[in-house]
Amino acid sequence: MNTPYAAPAAEPATLELGRLLEQVFATGGTARGLIVALSNLSQRTIPGTVFRATLERYGLRPTFDAILQDPQVLERLEAVQIPARPGARSLALRLTQPLLIRQRVGAATIRLHVGRELVLQVDERGEVELRRGDIRVSWLKIREDVLVRLRPARTSTGAPLDLLVVSAGHVISQSYPLDVVTVAPQALAAAPAVALPLAPAPP
What angle (nearest 5°) sits at the alpha carbon of residue 59, between those of residues 127 and 62? Predict the structure, then answer.
């Protein structure tokens, strides 16, 4: 007796997330635009494996690694909760465990202390900010919050882009542009419309 094939449980979420991403980046979009679009969705939980695989499929993984300060953060992603808190334009990235990450900065070695939950908040101007205290840096006897902010900006020719601003006291201070990305529709864009699975927020 043949057993009917059962599609993987994450497939609907993969399809819908891919469709949203293609919409944001169809004619040129930014990582900030994707975060804002996600924050406007109704309450839901996206599995971490789905979120990570979709970013990789569309070539956006390096951009999000830069925003989150290290590739290990997405590797440990368990789920994305939307919204992070009721009534807030935000999303929470929940990791399997807190992280201690060592990074080389010039001749020095700094340590990033990453909490188990990272909250990306969207303000009324459409800027995205990492919640203070979610990532901290230590170097020698110095310990500072890492402040991460994505702001809309324009090039000298007027083209839109994101400006990623990262600071942490006297330890880190840098800002650089994140280019606009355009993605081509892929096979999943032609799939029947489905909704992301609604899941209750973790306790």
Answer: 60
Which residues are CB-neighbours of 184 under 8 A, at least 6 positions away? none
Give residue 86's identity as a one-letter amino acid code. P
pTM above 0.90, yes or no: no
CA-CA distance, 202 to 47, in Å (whole number)?
A: 12
Crossing angle, helix 31-39 and helix 11-25, to 10 degrees?
A: 130
Torsion sign across C-alpha atoms 24, 30, 31, 36: negative
SS3 state at 110: strand
User: Average pLDDT of the chain?
Assistant: 84
Q: Any idea what DSSP says for residue 15?
A: H
Question: Looking at residue 11, what is its pLDDT?
Answer: 57
Give the orientation angle of helix 48-57 with respect to helix 11-25, to 10 degrees: 40
| Residues in a beta bridge with 99 | 114
Q: How confident is the model over 118-143, as pLDDT tens digits?
A: 999 999 999 999 999 999 999 888 89
Burial of 164 (0-12, 13-18, 19+ CB in 10 A): buried
* Percent helix / strand / coil, the chain, rounded to 5: 25, 35, 40
SS3 state at 140? coil
Domain layout of the chain by residue ranges: 11-179
* 123 vs 129: CA distance, rounded Å: 8
